[in-house]
Fold each of these.
Amino acid sequence: MLSRVNRVAVIGTGFVGSSYAFALLNQGITEELVLIDINKDKAEGDAMDLNHGLPFAPTSTKIWHGSYADCDEADIVVITAGANQKPGETRLDLVEKNTRIFKGIVGEIMASGFDGIIVVATNPVDILTYAVWKFSGLPKERVIGSGTILDTARFRFLLGDYFDVDSRNVHAYIIGEHGDTELPVWSHADIAGTSISEWTKYKHKYDQADLDAIFLNVRDAAYQIIEKKGATFYGIAMSLLRLTKAILHNENAVLTVSAYLDGEYGQKDIFIGVPAVVNRDGVREVIEMDLNDEEKQKFEHSVKVLKETMAPVVAND
Ligand SMILES: NC(=O)C1=CN([C@@H]2O[C@H](COP(=O)(O)OP(=O)(O)OC[C@H]3O[C@@H](n4cnc5c(N)ncnc54)[C@H](O)[C@@H]3O)[C@@H](O)[C@H]2O)C=CC1
Ligand SMILES: CC(=O)C(=O)O
């Protein structure tokens, strides 16, 4: 399964794919980076442009625009291809179009002889991760959706900003669908081992209404950004980079990826955002947090919405 050097293949070099490629290059995460897009000129132009930054990169990276055959020796294939949301559209609105696109893409990846880990970012990410698992025949551990990594990052940033603490010291998770039914796990949110409610000791202006507004801003961030600039890409690029490092560096990092549930949280046969330990083999295990009753009910609702949306699409394939 391992290639001699690390190779990452990016399928879809639009806003998300090209931003992720730029982030990879900047941090010198992989020795080889191949860009693949149905729009060959876009992939070729991106490869040229990225190569021109190499003299200033921390390490050498071989970057080229390629074809699916180049996935054969890839350690990770990251799929960011497909339609994105237009203003007013939900992620779930993209399900039929992107599932059709994915059937072709995953067939091509697997035909190359690929035997690594597939990471999915395209929306609706939880459902497409399930589709990739089905289409590819790969073990569930080796199909990973970006899930709520980005939402968790947004949550940590906004909480850190509110409490005037570095977001890297905020430990708080968003779980569930990467979309409108996601939920914050307030019952296990802490800053440096101190529960959020205890932070009144350090910051007197503490108001539940502010915290509720923080979650709404997390949940609706994509809508706000898409309204202003048409797409979101830097946050997800950094999220995908973090996940890539966790895999290639065998970090056993805890990230809220879209992982397969097989009884965890009382759920089966679904990919959904939950904290999980990620390493060189993919998802090592799902971490089952002890949710309170309200969180359990919201998580169950998120699962229900995903399963209802997925059922006709998966049945057709
Ligand atoms: N999971 C997350 O947190 C996030 C997910 N996204 C999702 O990422 C996806 C991509 O978004 P953008 O980059 O903004 O879109 P984009 O339209 O800029 O890029 C999509 C790229 O996919 C390519 N493509 C389309 N069909 C293809 C095929 N069959 N084979 C190969 N390439 C193909 C297009 O040519 C284009 O270059 C969307 O579904 C978007 O909703 C975006 C931000 C965050
Ligand atoms: C577009 C999207 O899924 C996001 O920015 O969260």
Note: The pocket of NAI (ligand 1) is lined by residues 11-17, 37-39, 42, 80-85, 94, 101, 104-105, 121-123, 125, 146, 150, 178, 231-233, 236 (CB under 6 Å).
Amino acid sequence: MEGGVDYLIDERKKAQFDVEAMKVAWAGSRQAFELSDRIAKLVANDPIFEKFSRPMLGRKELFKNSLRKVAHAWKLIIDLRLSEEEAKLLRHYIDEPAYTDLQWEMFIPAIEGQGTEEQKRKWLPLARKMQVIGSYAQTELGHGSNVQGLETTATFDPQTDEFVIHSPTLTSSKWWPGGTAKVSTHAIVYARLILDGQFHGVHGFIVQLRNLENHTPLPGITVGDIGMKFGNGAYNTMDNGVIRFNHVHIPRNQMLMRVSQVTREGKFVQSDVPRQLLYGTMVYVRQKIVADASKALSRAVCIATRYSAVRRQFGSRNGGPEIQVIDYKTQQSRLFPLLASAYAFRFVGEWLKWLYTDVKQRLEANDFSTLPEAHACTAGLKSLTTSATADGIEECRKLCGGHGYLVSSGIPELFATYVPACTFEGDNVVMMLQVARFLVKTVSELGYKQPVGTTAYMRRVTALMQSNCAVRTAEEWLNPGVVVEAFEARSTRMAVACGQRLAKFENPEEGFAELSADLVEASLAHCQVIVVSKFVEKLQQEIPGKGVKRLLEVLFYVYALFLLHKHQGDFLATGYLTPKQASLANDQLRILYSKVRPNAIALVDSFNHTDHLLSSILGRYDGNVYPKLYEAAFNDPFNDSDIADGIHQYVQPMLRQELHSAKL
Ligand SMILES: CCCCCCCCCCCCCCC/C=C/C(=O)SCCNC(=O)CCNC(=O)[C@H](O)C(C)(C)COP(=O)(O)OP(=O)(O)OC[C@H]1O[C@@H](n2cnc3c(N)ncnc32)[C@H](O)[C@@H]1OP(=O)(O)O
Ligand SMILES: Cc1cc2nc3c(=O)[nH]c(=O)nc-3n(C[C@H](O)[C@H](O)[C@H](O)COP(=O)(O)OP(=O)(O)OC[C@H]3O[C@@H](n4cnc5c(N)ncnc54)[C@H](O)[C@@H]3O)c2cc1C
């Protein structure tokens, strides 16, 4: 047997559930599934969107090719009259970071959230028709996480009724904004507002960067690319830029003025809208990043699972086939929790989208009451899901052995493109510290204020602190109430313990800094409560299709009990579990893996990923791995000739012992 075609055919026969119904459950609805499937095929069948060769291209060629793809996609959007939802799916399946990500996911949302009605009327139609192309220039060479520490200045000049945008130091150079180096005509630039010598906080300003006719940078603007980034292909399709402003004048009405205004006389007016709304675009994108995590993780898991069923090692008896590596318990204990995590992140992402839609509607109606919770949830879940996904993709590479390291496995580029998600839109540790602030506040108010939303479980603080887990057999872990309660008790106890230790510090900020590592762990525990509970809520809904709900229940227990096993130190140290109960959870986990095993291939088929999206020989739907790996090796341009450049010049003289006289 040269390929694994028959192996995957056999595997698909083992499925104990309706794969088509699971595809619908994964997509969210039949309509969402059909839409997504249609756009996936549109992209897969269009040669312009080919991406297998991307890691082999040089930077300039890669970038030009990316511009071509965007232009082609925009043409399709217009010609086929695609809706915004369809256009976003098109972006997902094209699978290439490009300047349009910043246009649609940051520039436009920033104007929508922070602009006045007049500013929206002017800028949004231009941006939505791509008549201006915008980016989001917040981070600087010297400051990224600390937004209030930004150095770029926007000084009001009452004489001309303009702001003067200036980069006073080298470290104030804008550094990282995607789409800026070569493409964007405008940017939302975050800068310190200075009125009559007084600093009035950091605000966003719409600044034109390039001449719309010939694309040259405007006077006073120095702009360029910050250089190659990690990995081949990957995020190098994006032109992340550096910008320096030398006293660039913009009209006063280009400050985004929903939160605060500057009058013609140069007076600062703070509206009732909280200052935190300036950070609203980041809340929006963090929510998108959570939704995206399940897509990235499911891709890696799909590749590793299919390949694990094709790959065989050891155990051959009488010349028969060796064991499929997916049958090793160690392989299952590494792979199946990731498979379960992909489903868990899919459902929590769905919920977070709902939460964001709700908060957005409230903000539009000037109801800001749920903003702190939305901020804590988006920051925390962004951190949890991207860290787990980045680690998960790397684990999938290792699960594929040596072949996982080949670019043709699809995993290296996926990893290189994905990992910056742990840093952009808020470094993951900095984001967990935001959750910590929210938790500390919640805990300190427990005596007189009922926690709401995702912290509502802490209303039962006394019970969660005092009662202990009642599980006596491995079977008793198969109860969602028991599992969720264990996570809630561990989280409450960790948060309360942090609160008690913080109270011993005279200066709360000093205490927060000193205990920050523990606070990050408590925040992670709280975020895990959210993911676990949202999975349970999903299971409480009607989920049609033979065996679909049962398999999702299995995945829920795999996800939760795997986390419990991984963090058993917390569960034991907080005293909620005994070592025996933790060990029973692990026993149950092994039983669960054997329930996943026959369904593994069908569960990854349910993601409905096309071979185009996976761009992986190891993860091919048909399992025809070895012939295609062999073919791809000889299709590599490096194999065009048997004698590589340099052989005659540098190797042959060595073989002939003539190196001393060779021209090097
Ligand atoms: C291809 C791979 C996958 C990609 C995913 C695909 C998804 C599609 C999307 C595509 C997107 C495009 C690509 C993305 C490119 C990347 C872009 C960027 O990275 S843009 C720059 C992002 N920068 C950051 O995230 C900076 C991080 N820092 C901060 O957010 C803040 O400064 C801070 C949270 C660290 C707070 O700092 P601090 O100084 O302590 O705070 P303040 O004094 O300013 O405010 C404190 C107060 O405000 C509350 N707060 C903070 N942030 C928010 C918020 N966002 N919303 C609401 N409230 C907020 C905070 O809790 C405090 O409240 P208080 O009650 O006072 O305690
Ligand atoms: C691919 C990519 C695309 C990007 N695109 C954009 C863009 O379009 N527009 C834009 O404006 N920006 C963009 N960025 C910048 C990005 O938002 C920042 O890099 C990010 O917010 C992190 O900030 P930083 O680089 O200042 O990290 P730093 O804050 O310097 O982090 C360095 C280390 O310090 C730690 N640290 C920092 N502060 C604290 C603290 N208070 N407590 C404990 N530890 C701390 C961090 O955990 C980290 O380990 C992009 C970045 C990348 C990688």
Note: The longest helix spans residues 329-364.
